[in-house]
Each structure stands twice: as structure tokens, then as C-alpha cells.
Fold these 2 entries.
Entry 1:
Amino acid sequence: MKLACFVEAYNFKDKSERKALSKFKSTAESMGHTFDFIFKEDISRVAEYNALFIRATTDPSNSAYVASRLAEQSGLKVIDDPHSIRTCSNKAILHDLFLKNNIPSPKSLLFTGDFSSVSLDNIFETLGTPVVIKTPYTRFSSHVEKADGIQEFISISKKLLRKSKVLVVQEYVMSDFDWRVGILRNEIIYLCKYCIPDGGWKVKSKINGKNVWGDTIAVPRESISPELKEICINLSKCVGDGLYGLDVKETSGGYRVIEINDNPSIYEGYEDAIDRDIYEKIINALVS
Amino acid sequence: MIIVSEDEDDSDSSPLFFLGQPVRDSVLNVNHDYRYLRMGYYVSAHAETFGVEVTPDCTEIMDAYRNPLLIEKARRNGLPTNGYRLVTRPNENLTIPAMLFAVNPFTNNSMKVVKSGSRLPGIIKKMSFDARFPVSLHPVTGEVKEIIQMFGESTSDETSDFARKFYEIFNIPICKLIVQIDDGKVILNHCEPAMEKEVKWDIVHDKLHEIRQKI
């Protein structure tokens, strides 16, 4: 089969990501398929292929969405499909999804700019202190901030509301790491710990003015706890049967899902460090 | 069916109130702007997440507002187009006069009509943010017109049949369409949000009245 992989130039900058892309290609070819990298100029040619795998950052506003939807319209198998992109790329939509499906997650509210004392008091009474404020389009911990009180909340949210009509305000859940659960076709394909760097509070934290990433520790997927597995599979089924990366915090009160991402990072030596068959599983999903 | 609109006279719920509630009934989302991350989009997304039928749904919104998806869907459904070409850099095979639309997350009202070949490289460079995003390029063969489509009605008589067909295919209650009239034939080039002042709200009121009577 003819497989296309939609990428942008930045996907080749990091050595580990470049190696992972190369592994996808060599795996597909070893299985008897062709695997071409295509770029935004090639989007209108997508119907020439049998399946599309997207590695460029997905968002409904990006070229990747256009590629995904054109491929879907042409009857191609697509990872990430347009529905998954639209759902997972928007934290306000995830807020609704979690609520509707009773997904265990930190308490959260949508905020559209009501700065009355009743509204602000309600936020802190419901969520406690501090609170986490996110724009709907947050990626890689960007546009996610923490407010320790009402004044800080007002200042941060006013700034973020300039770029978004809706913000998600969430209870802060402290942890040393987030579980990253990789799921494909509603099966676990890898498991990692995304660690919070020392002195930070999220996986990519600004420490002494510099962005610092925490370590990634791969863990055998078979070792996942039954409870975490059930929560993750239930949630992935609510979105679809694509490739997802779920971020989950482990607390004394149980697991709390932070988000489900389409287009999860796959870097050579990181997510694939233990379960090395993820390339084959993804190619199989594209050709089946 | 719940009608969600900013207009208190016509609606059962304002968008802001609607977003805070669970949804159990089908939804008609009336807005002049359905862009991603805007309130019009969130209303449809909220309804969809709760599993109810909504007009327009998010796929329909994105299909209409992203130029290559618009043209592809129009083509598949027999609505006349001139085709499109995605470019990030100028090249010698591009013909003028051409109509250009940005395919990026930032720009609205982005149409540029270019009649001079010497201006094309600079405009592509600017609209593509220096080759970061594609630009959709259409040939110009007729008279370029902007019309407002409201539930299949058009602000111009010569495009009334076209507006009806557009609404049947795309299911967008209110939008601005950029078309060309070429020898009496209407050709679709682009769809974008209408400005509030451009919409003939009396037509919208009448249409909503008709819809309510059918419920």
C-alpha cells in the first residue's frame, strides 16, 4: 500500500524525532509498503495514497487538519482523523467530554470573563487554591498557568482571554510525574512517566527563566494497573479508535485524567524505549 | 429543537448560557461567525459532545471555512468551482489574474485579487507568512462578487439559486460567500464569516419563524 506521512520541516529538527520518523519509514517498507513524507504543498495530492499518518502538529487551524479531512473525504485510513483532532486539540471540548462521560479528572470550570466577585469566589470555592488556567489550544504545557489567588487569576486570565473566548480553569493536582498512556485502536501500546522537573509544576516548566523538560521514563505496557487501563480505554473509546496519548495523574484518591491528546509525541529512545513494536502496530493500523 | 443565538427575540438560549448547560435536544446554532475558537464554533462543539444533532455541526463548519475543504466538498456535490492550487512559494506556472486566500490560523477577510504577475511573489510571501502556511490560489475568469447567504437566501438576486444549493450542501445558516459570475454562471471561491452589519436580519427572523412553526 502507498502510505503518506504528513510532516513539517520542524519534525526533522530534533534528532530523536527524526530517528523515529525514519523508523516509521523503514518499518513500513520492511512490511512491503511505500512510505512518503509529504508537506503542506502536497496536501491536494493526498488522494493518491491509501492511508495518511500525520506527524505535524495537529490543530483545526493548521494545515494538518486540511490534510486529514481531505484524506478522510477521499476514503483513506487516517491517523489522526479530523474528529480526533477537533476533540483532542481543544481543552474546552475535553472539559465537556469528561463531564458527559464521568471521566475521573480534576474539577474544572469554563471561564468566559465574568470577573464579578460572585463568579470569582465560586471558582476558588469550587476548585480550591491554587488553580490552573489553560487556553483551549494548549500544547506541550504552553498557555497553561497557575494562579495562587484571585488577583493573580484576574491578571493571568485577562491576558489569556485576549487570545481565546473561553478558558478552562482547573483544580491543581500536585504530582512528581504524569502517566503518559499511548493508545491505538483502544489498546495500550506504550506507557511512560513524564516527570515534572525539579522546581517546576508541569512537564515543561519555566525554571530560572529557562524552559526545562522533565525526564521521560518508559515502563513496560503490561505493568499498567488495571484501574488506569480501564480509565484510559474508556476515555479513548469516547473519542474514537485512533492514536492517542493520555496524561493521567496518580493521587492518593485515585487516577485523575488531565487530557487526551491526538498526535502524541513518539521520539526514538523515549516512548519506544521498552515496547519497541509501536512502529509496527501503527503501520498495521494504517494498512488494515 | 433549541435555537441558540445572540438575538434574544429569536433564541431559546444565548451562546454563553448554552455552554454552561448539558444538552438533551437538537440544536440550531444561529451565528454570523462560526470560526474555530469563537463562540459560534463552541456552541456546535458543545452540542456535538453531548451527542445531539446540531446545525451546523463542526465538520460542516470546518469544511466551509477552510478553503481547500470548501472547494473539494463543492466539487464533489456538483457546485461549480474553478479549482484551487495550494502554494507556499511563487513559481513560474502560476497564472494571473488570480484570487488568493490564506489557509492559516490567523487571517480572516483574506481575499486578494492579483492582476499583475510582478505583485504575485510578494503577496504569496506575505500571505504564507514566508512559506509557513499554504495559500489557496484560484483563477479569475469572471466578475468577483461578495454575497451574504442566510438559510439559502442571498443578498443578490442573480445568486439566489446558487445560495439555496450552497445551503443544501454546506448547512451553514449564515455566511459570506465570495463567488465569480462568469457568463451568467456562479462559481464558488470562498466562504467566511459575515459581519453582523452585513446580514439581513429580517430574512433570518422570517426563516427562524418558519422553522419554529414546523417544530
Note: The two ends of chain B are 7 Å apart (CA to CA).
Entry 2:
Amino acid sequence: MSIMQDSREATMFGRRTDGTPIRRPLSPHLQVYDMMQLTSALSISGRITGVVWSVGLLVLVWWLVATASGPGAYGTVSWFLSSWLGVLGLFGLTAAAWFHTLNGLRHLAWDAGYGFDIPTTYKTGQAVLIGTAAMTVLTWLIAIVAWAR
Amino acid sequence: MAKEHAADATMRSPLGRVRGFGSAHGGTHHWLLQRLTSVALLPLTLWFALSAASLAGAPYEVTRAWIAHPFNAVLLLAAIALAFHHTAAGMQVIIEDYANREWAKVAGIYGIRAICWLLAIASALAVLRIAV
């Protein structure tokens, strides 16, 4: 490879399956695609919310193990989850979980061959956002009612 | 040339020859399991999120009794297995996409898989300790 003249060349460095380098755009090519489009933004959000949910799984493990350990450990996890930081974190996890779930439905439809045209992609994308908001509010309404009881 | 011709004349089908030769050294197994676990997790997510919300602020005995209920314990165990499988599979794809060095890729994939296994066993043990 010659000396790079243009920094954009850094995003054109791919490898063939045998490992030899080849000049071709990486996907997603950040200089070519506008990542602020709804389609691109939701695409990367699907991945980010997946990572966020793995943090949520850590909370689930903590909650289960603490409950199995006894009232002391359960008190600690309850205290943390009902603190402002815990509530904020749980709220974020709820939104991320619903987004990932609803966006996953969209992916399953794509896998089955439906909804590939651009108008439908935008419509289902907007539906995912509205659905995420609705399910997050519903989940927290249930939580607040349970809390107040 | 003659050698090439001999290779072409093999009894193996083109599909049989390419199977397992991709960059992932595997076929559709990973892809399919990621989809199957996601389908199974759809109802489980709905059930768990709404149940967990209704346990907000619950005292120790109530939470413990909820986990101990056979219906909840069975679904929790299923959700744990599926969720950690789905997480490990998803993280593997992310690492394959972003890690450039082979050692980082291999260490990342198997490191995360090891952590997922341990956490799945720990949470399953917790459910069993409460429910049994």
C-alpha cells in the first residue's frame, strides 16, 4: 500500500476473506451515508440498545442473586434501584429494551422479506419510535401504580 | 490445467464445497439461532418487563414468592438461557464488525461467551435456590 494522501482512505481499507488488503468502502461508510437519517439512526440504535440491554442483564443477575442471598442483599439492590440514579438507569433500560424489541420485530419482518421499500421503512421506523414511547410509559405507569400501593 | 479439471470433476456439489469456508467458518447456524432466540424472547420480554414493573417497591417476601412460583421460575429460567445466548450472539457480531486484529476478535468473542455462561449459571442457580 502506498502512503495515504487522503484521510478518507482510512475508511476504504477492507480485507478479502483470505486476509489480503483491498481498497473498498467499509460498511456503513460514514463519509458516504448521512447517519442522521431516520433509517441509519435507527439501525445503529438497534445495535446500541442491544449493548445497553446486556447491561440490563447484569442488573437482572444482581437482582436475582441478591434475592436468593437474603433480605440484606435484597435491601441493597432495592435501595440502589429506587435511588434517583437507579430509577434513571432503569428508565433508560426500559426504553432501550422496548426499542430493541420493537426494532427486532422490524428486522424479523425484513428477514421474512417484507417492508424493504423506502416509504415502508420510514413508516415502520416511526412506528418503532412511537411504540417505544408507548410501551415505556405503560411499563412505568404499572411500576408507579405498584410502587404507590 | 489438468489438475483444475480434476478438481471441477469432483463428486461434491458447489454448495458442499463452499460450506464452512466463509469468514465465520460456519453456515447459517449463528444467524438462525439469533433469530429464533429473538422470536422466543418476544413474549418473554413482554411478560418479564410488565411483571418486573408490577414488583416495583415490593418487599423481600413478595419478590421471593413471585420468583418461587413455578410458572415464573420456569419462564425465568427460559428467559435467562435465551437472553444470554442472544446477547453472546449479538456481541459476537459487533466484535466481528469492529475488532480488526484477529487475537482481539477471538479473545473478545470467547471472553464474552465465557462471561455470559457464568452469569447465566449464576442467575439460574439463584432462581433454583429460591424456587426449589
Note: Chain B is about 80% helix and 0% strand.
